[in-house]
Every structure is written in structure tokens, then in C-alpha cells.
């Protein structure tokens, strides 16, 4: 896959070659899941996976196939998130219990110190010189004990705070992974649904783009799923290059993408959509296994803007109608909800 500069092609080839080199070096079978572990390691997109691999390599110098299976299940498998959330949640609860216990200990030490001072205060009123000396010594011992206890408590609280921060970062990383599509690295459908509900509840202007790759099924059937994955990543790259920081781009499902443009009305949203369409059309697709030039990919895009009475279903339905009006009108085009083509859209979808 190339876009003139060849950056995507060169970068991803380097990642792939690095994965293959490690598979050879450790004599692992080149199963897709093992390749995915090493490819992800090469990209550094998943720091928790990289740290886990580095820890095993540092400890044992190599990884077994069983190690990689376990790493895949922990860091890449779609089913990993509930378990990891539970694990981190349990550790956080343990740290909180530990901190509460330390505070109880500190409170007990303070109460004991206060009792000692009260006792000294009562005794000192009618004490002679020798008794005063003994009282002062007792007071100094109590003060030293209190200082020591407070020092230990401070060290323990600092350690617990650091552990809590680490657990928080880990939880945030797991959350980010759970809301990201692993193939395209765009947001996934779950995150899109949440973001759309938030945009609707805010009640501020925004537009929705729904994108579909033209003839993707026949293309996928003809050239295979690996090349189909290249196409999905190509479109994802074009989307990322043409949206702003506040915009939300997601893989909506299969070969469909959806983009939420906060603060953007219909006509500016159409302009953004056309930039994405042109960016995709401007990239050449090359089959990596053979170097065969497969030509150019095109996409169709439907655009709808927020209406005050919208819910998620209504705005998606309008954007969807626009998308399939674009398909019917010849594909490789952008259609918005005010365009005349939308009135002629039938119920059946076009690939």
C-alpha cells in the first residue's frame, strides 16, 4: 500500500520484517496469533505487551509458544478486558484497604501519645527534681517513638500512592485498548456509540459521516483477507489524516467507518468528507506478497447533521440513507441529507 511518499508501506514492512525475524530467532510457528504478538511488539502500540515480553526475556532469555499464547490472551485477545479490569480493580481495593489500615494505625499511635502526655501533665505538677528528669526522659522516648511511627507511615503512604498511580495508569491503558479497533487503530463501535450519545446529549451542532468501501466484498473475495485488511488500514489512514483532534473516527463495522465532527455543520462536513474520499482515491494498493499493483480503492460517504429531535437511530439512519444514495449514484462520491439523490434512495443496500 502506498500514498506517494511510501511512508505507510515502508513503516509497516519494517514492522512485519521485525516480527518474522523474531519468529525465526525464537523458532516459533508462524501462526497468525504469534505473528500478531510480534508485529504489535514491533509497533510499540501496546506498551503493556512490550513490558510483559521484555520482563520474560530479561528473566529467561527466550519465550516459548505457551508464553506467547498467554501474552496474546492477556494483551490482544478480544475477551481479555473483563478479566483484566477485575484484576486491576481487586488490586486497587487491596491498596485502599492497606491505606485505611495504616491510617487506623496512625490514629492509634496518636491516641497513645496523647494519653502519655496527659499522664505526664498530671504527674509533673507536684514532682521533685528527680521525677521531672524521669518525666522528661519518658516524654523524649514517646516523642522518638511517635516520630519513628510517623516516618514509617509516611514511607508506606508514598509507596501506596505510587502503586495507586501505577494501577490507575494500567486501568487507563486497558480502557483505551478496550475502546480501540486493533486492526485500524481507530476507535471501535463501543466507543463510537458512547461518543454519539454524548454528542446528542450535549445538544450542540455536529455532523455524522458514514463511510463504506466500494465493492469491498468482491475485492476481499478476489484477493484474500490479508489484502482486504490492507484496504481497511488504507482507509483508516486517510480518515486519520483528515480529521481534527476533537473529531471522533471509528470503525463502525466490517468495511464501514463513522466520523463524528463536533461543532461542524452540514456543508463544512461535506468538505471534510470529500477530502477523505480524495485521500483514499489517491492511494495505490499494492499486494505485498507479490508486488502486484491492484489499482485504487474508492469509498462512498453519507453526511447528516444534528437535528434538535434526533436520537442515535435517527441521525445514523439519515447518514445511512445518504451513503446508499451515493452508492446508487455511481459510488466514489459524497452525498448529504439535503442532496436530491437522497429522495431516490431505496431500501436495498448496494455494495
Q: Any overview of this molecule?
A:
63% of the residues lie in helices and 11% in strands. 25% of the residues are buried. It has helices at residues 7-25, 32-43, 47-60, 65-75, 80-124, 129-178, 189-202, 216-223, 225-240, 266-281, 312-328, and strands at residues 206-213, 248-253, 256-262, 284-286, 293-296, 299-305, 334-336. The longest helix is centred in the middle third of the chain and has 50 residues, at 129-178. The chain has 351 residues and is of the alpha+beta class. It folds into 3 domains: 7-75, no CATH class; 80-178; 189-344, Alpha-Beta Plaits (2-Layer Sandwich). The chain is built from 11 helices and 7 strands. The strands form 2 sheets. Strands 2-3-1-6-7 form a 5-stranded mixed sheet, with helices on both faces. This is diguanylate cyclase.
Q: Which structural class best describes the helix and strand composition?
A: alpha+beta
Major beta sheet, strand line-up = 2-3-1-6-7
CATH superfamily of the largest domain: Reverse transcriptase/Diguanylate cyclase domain
The SSE order reads HHHHHHHEHHEEHEEEHE
Classify the beta-strand content into a percent band: 5-15%
CATH architecture of the largest domain: 2-Layer Sandwich
Q: What's the total count of β strands?
A: 7
Instruction: List the total number of helices.
Output: 11
Descriptors:
351 residues, alpha+beta, Alpha-Beta Plaits, 5-stranded mixed beta sheet, two-stranded antiparallel ribbon, 7 strands, diguanylate cyclase activity, diguanylate cyclase, EC 2.7.7.65
